[in-house]
C-alpha cells in the first residue's frame, strides 16, 4: 500500500506553495498546497476568523492526530495564532467527500448494500478511534467523510467537535450548537443535552445513521419546507416531530440487516440508541465480503475523480 506523503517535522506555513482552493465554508478555506522542499501535496485549512474555541479545537486536532489512522484524516501540523486564528496542514484526499461521490456530476450514485456496509465499517472505525481519544465529532454527515483514489474513507472536519474527558479523566461540558442542523439528533436541540459524554457519542451515531440512509436512498433523509433552511426551529420541528421515526422506507427494497442497522442508529431516545462497538458487530457490517466491497467502493470513488 502506498504510504501517504509526510512533511518534515514541524513544518512552517511559509514552507508551502499555494496550488488552488479546494473548498470554502462559513468558517474556513481549504487549499491545495505543495511542500516547497519535498514537493509532496497536502491540504491547508485556514480559519477566516479568530475563535474563542480555537484552543479547544487545536486540542481536538492534536488528539485526533495522536497516532496515524486509516480512518481519520491525518493532521500533520496545527498552528494556533495568539489572536485565536487556527490553521492546520492535512493529508490531501484527492477524491473529495462522500457527498461529492454521491452526487457526482449532478448524477446520484446510490451505494449498493455491500459497498454501504464497507463504508459504514470505515466510518464506525473512525468514530471509535475518535471516541477512544476522548473526542466527539458532532458533525457527522457525508460532507465530512473524505475519500481518495486508494478507496480510503476517512472522517474529517472538527470545527464542531468537543473534548469529552480532560487529561485527568474528568468529564468536560460538551454542549454546542455548532454543526449542521439537518444532521442533529433530536436531543441536540436541547442546549444542555450534551453535558454527558455518552450523549455526545450517541449524537455521532445518529449522524452516521442519517449518512448511511442518505448514501442508500440517494437523497437527504431530513428536509424542511421552510424557505430559510438555516433556522434551527424549522429543523427541530422536522426532526423531533417526525412520525414515524426515520428509517428505510417500506416501499424501498432493502435487506432486514440494513433496516435494523439504520433503526439502531436512529432511535430518538439517545439512551436506547446503539453504540459504536455494538454497530461494529452488527450483521449488516460483519456479513460483508470486505475484499469485494472494498474493490467496488474504490471503483465508485474513482468514477468521481
UniProtKB/TrEMBL annotation:
Keyword hit for Nucleotidyltransferase: no
Origin superkingdom: Eukaryota
EC id: 2.7.12.2
Catalytic function, reaction form: L-seryl-[protein] + ATP = O-phospho-L-seryl-[protein] + ADP + H(+); L-threonyl-[protein] + ATP = O-phospho-L-threonyl-[protein] + ADP + H(+); L-tyrosyl-[protein] + ATP = O-phospho-L-tyrosyl-[protein] + ADP + H(+)
InterPro entries registered for this protein in UniProt: Dual_spec_MAPK_kinase (IPR052468), Kinase-like_dom_sf (IPR011009), Prot_kinase_dom (IPR000719), Protein_kinase_ATP_BS (IPR017441), Ser/Thr_kinase_AS (IPR008271)
Residues of the Protein kinase domain: 16-285
Residue sites binding ATP per the record: 45
GO molecular function: ATP binding; MAP kinase kinase activity; protein serine/threonine kinase activity; protein tyrosine kinase activity
Signal sequence extent: none
A Pfam family hit: Pkinase
Keyword tags: ATP-binding, Kinase, Nucleotide-binding, Phosphoprotein, Serine/threonine-protein kinase, Transferase, Tyrosine-protein kinase
Family of this protein: Belongs to the protein kinase superfamily.
Protein name per UniProt: mitogen-activated protein kinase kinase
Gene: ga16081
